[in-house]
Every structure is written in C-alpha cells, then in structure tokens.
Amino acid sequence: MPLMTHEACELNELLMSCVNSINCMGLFLSQVKCQELKGILQKHIAAHIQDYNMKVEWATKQSSQQKLGVPPMPPATAGGTHTMAQPVTPNPQMTALDDRSIATSYLLTLKRAGRDYAWAAMECTDPQLRTFLEDAFMMCCRHAFEVSQYMIKKGYYLTEPAPATYMQRLGQAYAPVRELAGVH
Hints:
flat, Ferritin, 0% strand, mainly alpha, 5 helices
C-alpha cells in the first residue's frame, strides 16, 4: 500500500533528523571524555543506525521487514540522589564540546525526536509504519531516560522532589472514577 503524502513528508523530516542525530553522535564519540557517557553513546548509535536504515527502506520500498530493537527500560540509577546542580554558562567561543554539552545536546535531540515520532505515529494510516514509529518513540524515550539519569548523577540536570504539601493538595484535587464493566 503506498504511503500517503503526509506520511511521506513526515518520513522525510524524520530521515533528516536521523542524519543529524547520527552525524552528531559521531562528533560526540570523537570528543567525549567520560567513559560512562561514551559507553551510552556507543550502545545507542547502533539503534539510531538501524532506525535510519528502516526509514530508508520505507522511503524506497514503502515497507520494511525489520523490527526496531526497542531496549528495555533502563534502571533508575540516579534514584533518590539529587546532586547539587553544577552551574553552567553558555560559551559562544566554544571550539570543542565538553561532556556536559554532549549529554545535553544528545538528550535534547532525543526529546525532540521522540515528540516527532509520537506526532508522526498519530497521523499515520499504515498500521506497519505506525507500529515502527511507535517503536521509534519508545526507543527515544528509553534512551532519553538513560541519558537523563547520567546527567542527574553528574549534576548536569536539575531535579528535585515535589514538595509534600503540593503532592497532598494534588491528591485531594482528584478522585477516582468507578470503573465501568466491559470497558477495556
């Protein structure tokens, strides 16, 4: 079944995004210093290449026989540790990326790609392409979680628990609805 025009346009945008992601990851791998971050990038780049190649297959054959390897949810390594955030200042004269810049750029790339996949999947009429886009969304979500956990641990990403008083008020603001029989 041929792709609809809007699906082909979304595919083009996603392909350009993949080219950018893979090119950036190559640059990141040539400049990263932290072995933990390097390991994350090395592990993830294969999935991004598979994702790109599957999109190329969709663009050339309008189908794909492959299944994207969606990784399992990584463990929450940052857990309850909320490292003091390391201050940062933009550097317009930067000539090389540091590990924080690499992790930040990669995380933001994953978040943007995830939103793009989710949007494209919601607009897709081909069930096989839609499943692929949903899998690509999940891949981005899981990769972003792993990178954010690394960043939290290093103090590159500010997080803190919501105040108990807010959570109490939030819990009081909503009441559960009795489930209806036969609803799935």
